[in-house]
TrEMBL record:
This is Adenosine deaminase. Binds 1 zinc ion per subunit. It is an enzyme of class 3 (hydrolase). InterPro entries: A_deaminase, A_deaminase_dom, Ado/ade_deaminase, Metal_Hydrolase. The keyword Transmembrane helix does not apply. It comes from the Bacteria. It comes from Luteolibacter luteus. The record marks H244 as: Important for catalytic activity. The active site is at E223 (proton donor). Residues 31-361 form the Adenosine deaminase domain. Zn(2+) binds at H36, H38, H220, D312. The keyword Cell membrane does not apply. One of its GO terms (cellular component) is cytosol.
């Protein structure tokens, strides 16, 4: 594949940046945007053990950090969403005090810095963190405190998304909580939890409250249920983005000649540029996809949908952004142009003001990508030079 961004400026014919060069990149160096990750799905195993001791929680299956990581990962790979979600009982159990919440949020941003993420949206359900007496407002305040400290210390920008849970009946309260905390770090509202049997339209009151406040909505849809759930998320609930959207694949037909026939829903999502927060590892673990190779991410991407990659639950799915990008690059032969495009897609879809998005694109994304293009082009030229036997 010929890959070049500024051929008109180049004195010589552009060189193909072969897939091998791109795949050999250290993916931590790519400036990344993460919009779909759960705070309670990404704790460090060692921190869980320490926090459990501090809070007197005896329910952990082991107090060896490596074993614990493996335990979470094993439990999450059973091929269905309800079992995937079981591990959260333990992470939530150790996130019940102000100190614990501040720490987990702070460590999240430190992990983001190590992974090369420059802007992250993190989500969680405050209602799960009141077992020891914190109010939901105190819970949000503590998480924001940890995130603010993390922003100062690690230079990673963030936005917080509050989740309502689809099997509960208090989504309106969750929406009101999100609205109360907007302008203080909360940037949007989500609906999470088991999808099957819990249609988003049950929560229209919550979504209408968000819409009336001119606020932002993303909804988990099309992960464990089909296009009907995606359609409800968009047309009943007014979602601005979709969490996963994987099963939108069922609304796209591949004709024998390889061309695509889009159903009305898929065409709408394409035309309206609805962002799809895709999560490869998590989808394979929950059974939304049988394998990485069969994941519709590349199909969507190459058909022009506004897609980008995410981690979902770094602990449960044993992943990080660099890993997801490497995996996608190797599985689908992504080029550097495609990686950059996907990162731009994510930044454009963030729930922060337009000016902030443009600023991050200019300051954090474009310069690093330009440098990487230059570096890889130089490497490709160097490979073509005849070997000089006098220089070792
Ligand atoms: O992939 C997912 N699909 C649906 N719900 C999820 C997923 N990962 C986590 N949660 C749910 O969201 C809550 C708030 O963060 C978690 O407690 C978990 O129950
Ligand atoms: Zn999720």
């Amino acid at each position: 594949m010929i890959e070049h961004r500024y051929p008109e400026f180049h004195p010589v014919a552009p060189l193909p940046l072969g897939a091998d060069l791109v795949a050999a990149l250290d993916f931590r160096r790519l400036p990344k945007i993460l919009l779909h990750e759960h705070l309670d799905g990404g704790l460090r195993p060692a921190s869980i053990i320490e926090l459990a001791k501090e809070q007197g929680y005896n329910g952990l299956p082991t107090d060896d950090a490596e074993q614990l990581a493996m335990w979470f990962h094993r439990g999450a790979q059973r091929g269905n969403l309800p079992e995937y979600l079981e591990g959260f009982a333990h992470t939530i159990a150790v996130m019940q005090t102000k100190e614990a919440l501040v720490r987990v949020a702070y460590e999240f941003l430190e992990d983001m810095a190590v992974d090369g993420v420059v802007y992250a949206e993190i989500r969680f359900a405050p209602v799960f963190h009141t077992e020891k007496g914190l109010t939901q407002d105190e819970v949000v305040e503590a998480v924001l405190e940890g995130l603010e400290r993390g922003r100062r210390d690690f230079g990673v920008e963030f936005g917080l998304i509050l989740c309502a849970m689809r099997d509960r009946t208090d989504s309106l309260e969750a929406a009101e909580l999100a609205i109360r905390w907007r302008d203080k770090g909360v940037v949007g509202f989500d609906l999470a939890g088991g999808e099957y049997g819990h249609p988003p339209k049950k929560h229209v009151d919550a979504f209408h409250a968000i819409q009336r406040a001119n606020f932002y909505i993303t909804i988990h849809a099309g992960e464990a249920f089909g296009p009907e759930s995606i359609w409800q998320a968009l047309q009943w609930c007014g979602a601005h983005r979709l969490g996963h959207g994987t099963r939108l694949r069922n609304d796209i037909e591949i004709r024998p000649d390889g061309s695509l026939k889009l159903g009305r829903l898929a065409q709408y999502i394409l035309d309206r540029r609805i962002p799809l927060e895709m999560c490869l590892s998590s989808n394979v673990h929950t059974g939304a996809c049988a394998s990485f190779e069969e994941h519709p991410f590349a199909l969507f991407h190459r058909a022009g949908f506004r897609v980008f990659l995410n981690t979902d639950d770094r602990l449960m799915s044993d992943t990080e952004m660099s890993k997801e990008l490497a995996l996608a690059t190797r599985t689908f032969g992504l080029s550097l142009v495609e990686l950059e495009k996907m990162t731009m897609n994510a930044m454009k879809s963030a729930f922060v003001p337009h000016e902030t998005r443009v600023d991050l694109i200019r300051r954090r994304l474009l310069p690093t990508y330009s440098m990487l293009f230059a570096e890889l082009t130089a490497e490709a030229f160097a490979k073509q030079l005849p070997r000089n036997p006098h220089l070792s």
